[in-house]
Amino acid sequence: MSHLSSRGLAAAVGGHTIVSGVDLDVPRGSMLALVGRNGSGKSTLVRALVGLRPPAAGTVAIDGVDLRTLTPRQRATRVAYVPQEDGPPEDLLVGEMVAMGRIPHRPPWAVDAKGEAPLVMEALELVGMADKVDRPCQHLSGGERRRVLLARGIAQGADLLVLDEPTNHLDVHHQIQLLETLRALGCTVIAAVHDLQLAAAHFDAVAVLHAGAVHAVGQPADVLTPATVHDVFDVPATQLTDPATGRVHLVLGPGAPVPAPRKVPA
After folding, report:
1. Which terminus in the chain has less CB density within 10 A, N or C?
2. Alpha carbons 252 and 239: distance in angstroms, whole number
3. Where is the ABC transporter domain (predicted)?
């Protein structure tokens, strides 16, 4: 399992800095959720964390190794990135798409490698898509495509999984199943998510992006407080603790109490 850290990280698009001063420590085997309003820089930060976008400033390291010192193949054996959207060729079969996750482990110029089929099937079974292995990708629904993309990331065999909006297009059942699957893998997981309730209930830590920086980072109960949710998302919220699991859950909307206005020091 991998440990990811960033120091003073800044990510930019077209020369415009979107988020800066990002200091993160994601311990081995833990799950971190990146949350924030639309346009807060979650996807931009994710791409910088996996090395797809050169940092405008600062560093990212995996197990103490600066990402910039790794070749693309070396990086791909350490971190698997599952994007928000991906458009494979329409005639590509599901099994072929998932097998693409094994490319970093193949010898140069190899089309495929022995022993990949069991790894592909295992990944598809984990996301409940093994029965679709021979289906053309063009026949997949949006939710099925998300699950196949995750299977490709799992098949990559990296100890660090970084996902951009992994629960998009999934119904509630498959959202929870996906997050429980990630937990069972034991990998280090970083995921940009928009659902605060999922972030609170299923992740070990949460980083809130706001105004071009990390507004708060820590355990969900300490970070997703009614005051923070109100200040960042302009939504009333309250915390509830599940007595059976100890997980923190958020109640959002008009039914939740609005924090009292903060007093400005005289």
Report:
1. C
2. 9
3. 4-236
Confidence of residue 228 (pLDDT cuts 50, 70, 90): very high
CA dist 220 → 67, 95, 157, 236, 241 (Å): 28, 36, 28, 16, 11
In a domain, 261, yes or no: no
β-pair type (65-66, 237-241): unpaired
- Total domains, the chain: 1
**pLDDT confidence of 256, banded at 50, 70, 90?**
low
- For the chain, helix, strand, coil in percent to 5 are 35, 25, 35
192, 165 contact by CB (below 8 A): yes
Read off the CATH number of the domain in which 138 is found.
3.40.50.300
Q: Residue 264, SS3?
A: coil
Domain membership of residue 176 as a residue range: 4-252
Assess if residue 258 is contained within a domain: no
Report yes or no: 6 and 60 within 8 Å, Cβ to Cβ. Answer: yes
Q: What span, in angstroms and rounded, lies between the C-alpha atoms of 39 and 18?
A: 9
Decide if pLDDT at 164 tops 90: yes
